[in-house]
Every structure is written in C-alpha cells, then in structure tokens.
C-alpha cells in the first residue's frame, strides 16, 4: 500500500513558525501570508499550486515539507451515498479513519485526533483497539483540508467539524486546539468556532482548562450513563473522574462560555435506556443548559450489547422531555461501512501499548492529575 511522506507536514507549522522558517531562508515576511492563503484559502494540494510564490521558493517548500502526510488507502461509501469514510496511512504505518457525512443542508466531517484511544470505552471500536499514538496538529488539520478540497471541487463546502473520530481529543489537548486555531484563523480557513464541536469522555481537568480559555467552540460530553456504577462499567475513565467531578467541569465550561453543552448517549438495550437512567440524568443536569443526543448503539466486534429498540428510545426521550431536558434521537449514518459513532478502527499489525500504563499514571504532559 502507499507510504505516507516522511517529510514534516506543512500543516504542522503555525503562522509564526512559518514566518521563522521563511526568515531562516532569507525570504520576506509577506511570503508567509501568501503561503497561508495558499494552504487554507485556496486549499493548494502542492507547492506548485501557490502561484503567487516564485518558482525557487515553491521548490524549496517541496523539498522541505509535505502537503500530503496522510495517504488515503481505502475509501468506502455508504449505500445511500451520504457518508464516505477514508482510511489513511501515516508515515510510521499507523492508520486513522475520518468520515464525511452529507445532510440536506450540512456537510459534516468527523475527524480523528489519535491513532487508537486510551480511554477503553467498552462499546467503542477505537477503544477496543487501544492507544497507538497522538496525532500531530498537522495530521488533524489535514483531514479537514482534504475533505474541504474535495467538496470545493464539487462546488460544495464544509459546514461543520466534529472532533469525534478516533481518539480522545482532550487527551491530545495541545495538538487538537492548535488544529482548531488553524481552522478558525481569519487569515486562512476562517471556519467559525461555533461550527466546531469537540467531544470528550470526561477528562475533568482538561474540560476546566478548555473552559478557562473561553473559546466559543462547542463541547460535547460522551456521557452514556447517569450513575457512577453504570458509567464506570461502560467508560473506565469514570473511575478517575466520576460524575460529580465531570459535572463540576461542565458547569465551569458553561459559566465561562455561555454555550449549551451536548451530552452524547449511545442507547444500549436494557442497560442505559431505562426511565431510571433518564431521571438520574435530569437530576444531574438540573438547570444546566444542555441537549441530549441519543443514538441507538452502533455494533462493534467486541461488545455484545444491542441497540435499544425504537420504542425504548422514544420512551427515554419522552422521560427526559417530561423533566425539561431537550433530546434528539439521531439518525444513524454510515453503519453499512462501519462509519457510525464508535465504529472507527484501524486493523494494524503493530501491538498496542498496554492500556494500564497509559491510564495509570496519566501522561504528565497531556493528562494532569485530578485536583
């Protein structure tokens, strides 16, 4: 299969990094703006496509950086034509998946922040895969740029970015937020912060850090259970950050941003689809402005649970709404190509690191201790 380039990614450079590189090459500062526009506004796929640059500089860029660190090796399209999923090779032969979903008026990309995931959520294929490594900011950015380029060629455009693919975004906090800054930068891609959603399983200190930055980026919390006993069974991270700590962090996010929080809930037959769980969620959320996105569980290889029936999903929704919590039952997309929520996985040959080593103790640079 094709190999990804071993050169550093041009998308790993911040604007100031780019200015520093050009200064080192003896180039004027205004070249940075030309390259930035080429990367993020005209969506140039190679240096030669940035026609505002002199030929010598284009050649220098081509020798020093790659514009395609991700190599698409598999493309799958759903039977309804509305969802496409790509499997990418990385330079170290790790692999990731990313998804583009089409709706009547929206084009939403679901992108990955890690190869694999350390969180170990039992019903998630990525969690079952285990953690391989963090993606760089450039590898995260490039997933979006690739989809944006394809849509532009079809006279279309992205409307939403959801950071809900492979990996736990705030476990790779710095790279994830650097990618968000690239997308949001008005000098280039200029994608509105309120059209970007970051999803987390509930790393409370990182949510608090996110809240303190007062960004207008949306927050989605993969909740899935409203009692500590059940949530710990489904999401092991709840042992470290139980519901009280999680909701304290979520309330800090709302206090800092005044943005409504979304709770994601994979509805599992006979497990978390009960009126009791709906009532417990309503008690937890209290007067917190929030919305619950319910989706019947998507199947994965290593979890035997079944999706809740339509009737039980409707009853769960009704119980929440009776308690004044708004709720939407989402339409499952891309299930026939394993592109639905919790289904992204890369079947690599390399052994995954031991999960316990990743979770205890947490990496000090990305997962600070609970306070």
Summarize the structure.
By secondary structure, the protein is of the alpha/beta class.
Write up this protein.
This protein is of the alpha/beta class and 371 residues long. It has two domains: 22-64, no CATH class; 71-351, TIM Barrel. It has helices at 15-24, 30-40, 55-64, 125-129, 137-153, 173-184, 204-212, 228-234, 243-257, 275-285, 310-322, 355-359; strands spanning 71-77, 83-89, 95-102, 107-110, 114-116, 131-134, 160-163, 196-200, 218-222, 261-267, 290-296, 326-329. The strands form two sheets. Strands 1-2-3-4-7-8-9-10-11-12 form a ten-stranded mixed β-sheet. The longest helix is centred in the middle third of the chain and has 17 residues, at 137-153. The chain is elongated. Mean pLDDT is 88; it is low at 336-340 and 348-371.
Please tell me what the overall shape is.
elongated
Find the CATH topology of the largest domain. Answer: TIM Barrel
- Helix % is 25-40%
The CATH class of the largest domain, by name, is Alpha Beta
The string of secondary-structure elements, in order, is HHHEEEEEHEHEHEHEHHEHEHEH
In which order are the strands of the major sheet placed?
1-2-3-4-7-8-9-10-11-12
Q: Give me the count of strands.
A: 12
Largest sheet: 10 strands, mixed
Kindly name the structural category: alpha/beta
CATH architecture of the largest domain: Alpha-Beta Barrel
Mean pLDDT: 88
CATH superfamily of the largest domain, by name, is Aldolase class I
Quaternary structure annotation: single chain
Beta-strand percentage range: 15-25%
CA-based gyration radius = 21 Å
The figure for the number of domains is 2
Distance between the termini: 46 Å
> Spans of 5+ residues with little confidence (pLDDT < 50)?
336-340, 348-371
Q: What is the count of DSSP helices, taking H or I runs of 4+ residues?
A: 12
